[in-house]
């Protein structure tokens, strides 16, 4: 049987990993796929030419040459960005070529349109490398857990943010200091917004939620909050209370709709996911039949992500001769069975909360604060009052107060914060973080 011809769009970090794996493990991959797999053409910039020559790959500077080549069976898009990636993928689908992409932003924002085009032309779009690098989380949720009703999932799905918070926790370093190191090490871009403000994680959470709950891709519905305002005080106090702060993506199915949110989160230190450090990723999935399952591994990198691309290539090769209607659906559920469930607004989120405030150290202050919680029906799980901090002579003495609430709707917490902030005895803005027990 003739080999399957692959076209690579991009021969950068991930593209090089794909090419190296396909050459190094060619015999093993053919045994799994049932056919040889050959990289017939790659679009490259100048720096990719040396590797391409070493591996015997023909190259072009125009990615459209790859897509239009009649001998290419599968197109692997690893360029990133919205354009020209979108035009290239849509053209490949129109020409009846299968597509594999590592482009999480493109899938999260335009995936509904892309999958509709793939169904129309009877081809596959695979996207395992778009989420959590080398961790096979898409396959696990879409296929491995297909017998289950998934209740929620929570993931550390951005390595840059996790590296920063891990360094802050283990070494007491400031956010800005660790960010500069992450940029020097190549973990963070010169403009780190997508990583530290949660946009990258929101793209990935959009995809995971869709295949977990059988809903259309809804990136616009993800509440996103970054880690740039996390202080060393918050990290220290969380540790004293038995928690770790992680930048978490949470997707939860509730009776009244779906919560989609990315934000800094306190997690009990005994949870395995709370101890995932450095640039590693992890996703915890809670489902009805199997219970909790945890998926851990490298979330980025040349060969970890390349491994996911090659795994998708093998899956596509195995399915080349199957009836398109009998293939695994792109979003796990049959396309006409997707449920457009309500997306809940932040005020309707439900979890516990961590509040840190600076209050005057005098009688009656805590009574006033607790009275506000009591009137709103908010139960307090723990209170931590620290020693007064160094202050100017003659000024009022203030103390840090940390409170942990029990689970409550966020709208009530925001109401409480507004009322407490209005007290003359509270001297600074209140810091609020969400708390997830993940039980």
Description:
The longest helix is centred in the first third of the chain and has 18 residues, at 104-121. The model has no long low-confidence stretch (mean pLDDT 93). α6 (104-121) runs parallel beside α11 (199-213). The protein has 439 residues and is an alpha/beta fold. 37% of the residues lie in helices and 24% in strands. Strands 7, 8, 9, 10, 11, 12, 13, 14, 15, 16 and 17 form an eleven-stranded mixed β-sheet that branches. Strands 3-2-1-4-5-6 form a six-stranded parallel β-sheet, sandwiched between helices.
Cα-atom radius of gyration: 24 Å
> Describe the biggest sheet?
11 strands, mixed
Distance between the termini: 50 Å
CATH class of the largest domain: Alpha Beta
- The count of helical stretches stands at 15
Q: Show unreliable segments.
A: none
The shape, in one word, is: elongated
Q: How much helicity do the residues have?
A: 25-40%
The appropriate CATH architecture of the largest domain is 3-Layer(aba) Sandwich
List the SSEs and their pairings.
Blueprint: E1 4-9, H1 13-24, H2 26-33, E2 37-43, H3 49-55, E3 59-60, H4 63-68, E4 74-77, H5 85-94, E5 98-101, H6 104-121, E6 125-126, H7 137-144, E7 150-156, H8 159-171, H9 175-185, H10 193-196, H11 199-213, E8 223-224, H12 232-240, E9 243-254, E10 257-268, E11 280-287, E12 291-298, H13 302-318, E13 350-360, H14 365-376, E14 380-385, E15 398-405, E16 408-409, H15 410-421, E17 431-435
Parallel strand pairs: 1-2, 1-4, 2-3, 4-5, 5-6, 8-10, 10-17
Antiparallel strand pairs: 7-9, 7-11, 9-10, 11-12, 13-15, 13-16, 13-17, 14-15
Helix pairs in contact: 1-13, 5-6, 6-11, 8-9, 14-15
